[in-house]
Amino acid sequence: MTALERHHLMIIQAVAQEGSLTAAGIRLNLTQPALSHAIRKIETQLGVKIWRREGRSLVLTQAGHWLLSLADRLLPQFALAEERLEQFANGERGTLNIGMECHPCYQWLLNVVSPYLERWPKVDVDVRQKFQFGGIGALISNEIDILVTPDPLYKPGLIFTPVFDYELVLVVGKTHRLYGITDITPEHLRNETLITYPVSTERLDIYTQFLHPAGIAPRQQKQIETTDIMLVMVAHGRGVAVLPRWLVDEYASRFELHSIKIGKYGIAKQIFLGHREVDEDLQYLTDFINFAATIHK
């Protein structure tokens, strides 16, 4: 007995729906003799009678009715699968898994994702922050498709595209002793409570580029996950924070805050979008990167 194949179901469905061999043959691009031969071959291959003759008509047997029901369920799924695979091949459909190594970038990402979803109605977006092997590892292992990071780690097979520049600033509340000054030295933070995102000090620029080279540490460090709570704490004098200037400006209408340059020259940063080189042909992925570069803060 030969395995059931898709073209078997297509013939069964066409004969049933068209009502005659002639019409079914036209639909299937087969002559009537060729279709009659195909029908006999199907029954021989499957080892079961699918049709019986009633006069000049072909009527489905019980097995034939079951196969027709199966064809009506499966053939649309085959058609949908082929359509979807074509869309995948053309980069028109998929789920874009985005990994975040930039805590304050969520607002910027929202400004990118919303219009992007309108541009690509058949593409979904998922955002992840916690990775089993870190952001770069998640990108290499296909856990994510795009990594949003201020600290690219260049490895073979990975491409990092800069999408916008920004400056890190110290943020203080209106009653803080540093309110109103233009720039700080490391010594200014020696007796401060520094509020940060839950990231190791080795990945915080305020430590690696400013405090550690001067051999100075803040009096205390508090880790808070959400930007809103962090800025509420700063506004109420519970500590100071280091954030992108554009993000502080966005919250200016909600909190009375003051931005202070870190050092004489400040700390300049860039946000990069990393992706795998093998994904260069995915149009919806490359369009996200190109589009993201137009959304500046």
Number of strands: 12
Tell the overall outline: rod-shaped
- Average of per-residue pLDDT values: 90
Give the helices and strands as they follow along the chain: HHHEEHEHEHEEEEHEHEHEEH
- In angstroms, what is the radius of gyration? 31 Å
| Termini separation | 66 Å
- Helical percentage: 40-55%
Question: What amount of the residues lies in strands?
Answer: 15-25%
> Uncertain runs with pLDDT below 50, 5 residues or more?
none
Explain what you see.
This protein has 297 residues and is an alpha/beta fold. It has 10 helices and 12 strands. The strands form 2 sheets. Strands 3, 4, 5, 6, 7, 8, 9, 10, 11 and 12 form a 10-stranded mixed β-sheet that branches. The protein has a two-stranded antiparallel sheet with strand order 1-2. Strand 8 (193-196), helix 7 and strand 9 (220-223) form a beta-alpha-beta unit. The mean pLDDT is 90.
